[in-house]
């Protein structure tokens, strides 16, 4: 390959500046002399240009990628093969959109990590862009920070679509493929299995982990060591200062079994959007439980109230009531088969005592009935007491996730205010009195003036996508990774 500044490819693309050099070839900034626009031209190395099987797959992928139309995907404009001016092997080249932006790996090198809002915005944008390709049956196979560009306005652009799939199909580059992407490769790819849309989701989850933690989930002395860790090891948990839904999102995305991950970029992006709205991420459609769902071993409806999710205690076992065993016949009946006189006397006295006890208990319940038929939970009433609770509840319920208070909390608050537990209400009038006491019919004025508790305002509109304020220094023209 004998290219230099000023060289013209296919009598059309004048090379202006070398952007990058990688394992597959070189990426140049060039001028399209026919359309008078700047483009990025990727020129493949001779070993790829001479491999007819690779070229056939590469042409097909170039045509497929060129049909993708999404602002998050760097466009493909042209593909061709031309003779080398120096008389060498023919040159295969790909003409792409020249992106005014910076690779994510350069951003991470400068900043260390992204904020939670920046990382989630980037992940959602990338997932939406991947979904366009997944819908078209195209798998990227090489999602990594070097292939994710960020413009000065915060727009994400994915590059090298289809290139990774073509490389994976060429036997001479299969080992190089693993070596080049070991830090972000999915377990199934590292095991030699076919990559699917869920493989792209896993790689994007690794990118998200790195953006949030400031480091990759796995590291090692060599690429093979790292690839093996993707197959068999679990990553170190994300920092606990990140919200539980964010950590759970990444954990689900990094599942070893592709069938229990988010199936494609769109499903993953929807999960990110839910987390951005303050909700827990939805479970993947194929999820059946396992290590990735440890945080959801408890009932979802119960644990969704208070973050982080807590394992509920053992539930009390309700046993059916059983009748009292009947006494033996020899002690209950006389020899003649009936009750004795002494037994009848004792039985009559016992019945009289039981009736007297029932009358006392019933009278106590009647004289202490205030007419409030709303049941209240004893533990919740104790927490509320006679003091009006704060907007988000009392005690440990101050960090609740739901945007509106549970109905039980509101009921307990009104009951506790109208009838304090420390002062019992006066007994009702005797039956001979015809005029009822006014205090039993008029509710206290505090019940009409006490404002109902309100929770935090729900977040119904997520922040606008595409701009998350990355401090990109200047405009960097980039045409993708040269690999």
UniProtKB/TrEMBL annotation:
Region (Disordered): 279-339, 375-483
Organism: Tsukamurella spumae
Keywords: ATP-binding, Kinase, Membrane, Nucleotide-binding, Serine/threonine-protein kinase, Transferase, Transmembrane, Transmembrane helix
Biased composition regions of type Pro residues, renumbered to the chain: 306-326, 422-431, 441-465
EC supergroup of this enzyme: transferase
GO biological process: negative regulation of fatty acid biosynthetic process
Molecular function, one GO term: ATP binding
Listed PANTHER family: MITOGEN-ACTIVATED PROTEIN KINASE KINASE KINASE 20-RELATED, SERINE_THREONINE-PROTEIN KINASE NEKL-3
UniProt xrefs under PROSITE patterns: PROTEIN_KINASE_DOM, PROTEIN_KINASE_ST
Regions crossing the membrane: 346-367
Keyword Cell membrane appears in the UniProt entry: no
Enzyme Commission number(s): 2.7.11.1
Catalytic activity: L-seryl-[protein] + ATP = O-phospho-L-seryl-[protein] + ADP + H(+); L-threonyl-[protein] + ATP = O-phospho-L-threonyl-[protein] + ADP + H(+)
Protein name as catalogued: non-specific serine/threonine protein kinase
